[in-house]
Amino acid sequence: MSPEELSKISGIELAPSHEGRVVYRCIGCGESFELENLLYTCPSCSSLLRIVDEKFDELKKRSGEEWRRVFDLRRSLDIDGLKGIFLFHELILPSVPLEDVVYLGEGHTPVIKANGELSEWLGEEFSIKNDGQNPSASFKDRGMASAISFLNNYIKTKNPEQVLGICASTGDTSAAAALYLSHLPKDAVKSVVLLPKGKVTPQQLAQPLSSGATVVEIPGVFDDCMKIVEQLAENYEVFLLNSKNPARICGQKSFAYETAQQLGWDTKGLVVAVPIGNAGNVTAIMEGFIDLKNLGVIEELPLILGVQSHHANPVAKWRDSGSYVPMTVEPSVAQAAMIGNPVSFPKVRGLVEDYFKDNFCAVTVTEQEIMDTMLHVNRHGHVVCTQGGEAVAGLKRALKEGRVPRGARYVTDSTSHQLKFAGFQDDYFAGKLEEGFGVRSREELINRPVGMEADAVRIAAGLGLKARAKG
Ligand SMILES: *Cc1c(COP(=O)(O)O)cnc(C)c1O
Ligand SMILES: [Zn+2]
After folding, report:
1. Which atom of ligand 1 is nearest to 385's Cα?
2. What are phi and psi of 184, to 5 degrees?
3. Nearest residue (CA) to ligand 1, atom 2
4. 255 alpha carbon to ligand 2 midpoint, in Å?
5. Which of 278, 285, 390 to mutate to test the pocket of ligand 1 (most atoms within 8 A of CB)?
6. What's residue 200's pLDDT?
7. Quick check: 470 pLDDT over 90?
């Protein structure tokens, strides 16, 4: 149905008309900057930037009830530029016209209810939002869709010389960046990713290679790659595609919008568990819920539960002790979250102080809990990655330690697809995770192929089948 037809039936205008006044706003000094230039930090004080709509309050002309209807009705439209995360166009990047939106199938990932057995194991009913079901198989596609749409609009309106899109990555950012950049005209953009050699999985390495990006491997860990990319972004004309780029955060807010929508907009007593690495995702999720609350689309902010491994937990330590100390990471199976100095930490701190005071909690889990939980969850109808396992493990622990209320509603974020991290499962089954990770393989979770002869009778015997009674 066209928006006009649907608008006529529903009596509500569905096509976006709000362009807003979208600017960069410094989280330190509060100064605003036009979108004319590509900025990642404040030119005055070097703090992080946020992209804000100075005319956001004009959106309040519509009631929360009306916005809920707009977003619900838009789901039955099939209009370019209003799909995926841009269904929430007014809240993401209203300055980007629909024709400049790049859509590759991201967003609207399913919220899957845990079955009875799994809920009993956790101690509460809960659901997993599977962001592994995005085009490059991680939530990073949400932010990449907004950042690349922003870039597409920038290229069309400013006609710059060829833009070099670049990012540092623990694997999934580069997969998403390379995918979305490859959709833009080749004469307009070039695509480069920087990876810590040996610290991304073979699947994640295959992804930017397949999208045709230049893949630069350097020694060290993610934090080392990030430092180099930051220097490049400061001193050369490049388009930074890390979550330091506020245009990424805009799109990643859609996780919050969708979760609220999938719960019928009822976020009362909701707990959302998220693994934290560079802290871009948790920042975006908090900002997304704040937008909805500001518009009256939801009544209450949920409780956000950040989860980290004991091998990389600066945010959880900060939440417990009150002081933030960047740390040197140790190997983690939640490799995509293995970050000792999260770039977006100042944003998290600000959001917690201003909005989520008692509604933000962070918990540390062990590598053992992460692996065991991932394997256990996947034996119950899910396809969560190690970080997705980490989120569930964090929820389990938080319930046990009384950090989150009982009897609430719980949604955990599985940030990528299980298959990206299949190597950790292989290593667990082979008992190879002891060293470095400190993970012991539990017999009941090990699963291996069983070799048998190509003979039905022997296979039946091997499987303990009873022969059918002949009659
Ligand atoms: C990037 C990533 C994370 C961490 O998200 P941040 O925004 O860096 O905190 C977690 N899980 C997966 C699968 C990721 O790719
Ligand atoms: Zn500033």
Report:
1. 13
2. -85, 160
3. 336
4. 28
5. 278
6. 87
7. no
Residue 219 resides in a domain:
no
Q: How far apart are the CA of 319 and the centre of ligand 2, in A?
A: 25
**What confidence score (pLDDT) does residue 179 get?**
98
Q: Are the C-beta atoms of residues 373 and 412 closer than 8 Å to each other?
A: no
Q: Find out whether 383 and 130 touch, Cβ atoms under 8 Å.
A: yes
Q: Which domain holds residue 414?
A: 111-135+249-445
pLDDT in tens, 377-392: 999 999 999 999 999 9
Question: Measured between alpha carbons, how far is 23 from 288 in angstroms, rounded to an integer?
Answer: 17
Query: Is 281 a member of any domain?
Result: yes
CA distance 53 to 88: 14
Q: Give how far the C-alpha of residue 213 lies from the chain's centroid of Cα atoms, to the nearest Å.
A: 22
Tell whether 191 is covered by a domain. Answer: no
Separation in Å, CA 94 to CA 90, 99, 244, 251, 283: 5, 12, 20, 11, 20
Q: Residues with beta carbon < 5 A to ion ligand 2?
A: 26, 28-29, 42, 44-45, 47
Residue 352 maps to a domain: yes
User: Could you give the number of structural domains in the chain?
Assistant: 1
What is the sign of the dihedral through the CA atoms of 155, 158, 162 and 164? negative
* Lining residues, ligand 1, CB within 6 Å: 138, 140, 172, 243, 275-282, 336-337, 385, 387, 415-416
From first CA to last CA, the distance across the chain in angstroms is 59
Both tokens assigned to 99: 């024709």
Nearest CA to ligand 1 atom 8: 278
Geometric angle at alpha carbon 248, from 391 and 69, rounded to 5°: 80
H runs (alpha helix) in 166-323: 172-181, 202-210, 222-235, 246-252, 254-262, 280-294, 314-321
Q: CATH number for the domain including 122?
A: 3.40.50.1100
